[in-house]
Amino acid sequence: MLHPSYSDLMNVVNSEVEPGEQPVVNSRYSIVMATSKRARQLVGGAEAMVDTDNIPKPLSVAVEELYEGKVKILSEDTESEED
Fold first, then answer.
1. Nearest-angstrom CA–CA distance, 75 and 46
2. What span, in angstroms and rounded, lies between the C-alpha atoms of 18 and 45?
3. DSSP class of residue 55?
């Protein structure tokens, strides 16, 4: 079993969404895409936002960052507004 689970990650990511608003992520696919994008950033030289002494793999670091709320997932609407 993976720790944290997909549902745990989805709950963390969507925790700041106000009642009645659309959640930031609706599926496992969104979580997978966000963590893989962050892992690629880490491989490319980005600084990790969590303690990596016991976490050897970039994908595991990305999952931990997401779970601890260090990395935020932006909805597609927010991304297009920032461009």
1. 22
2. 34
3. -
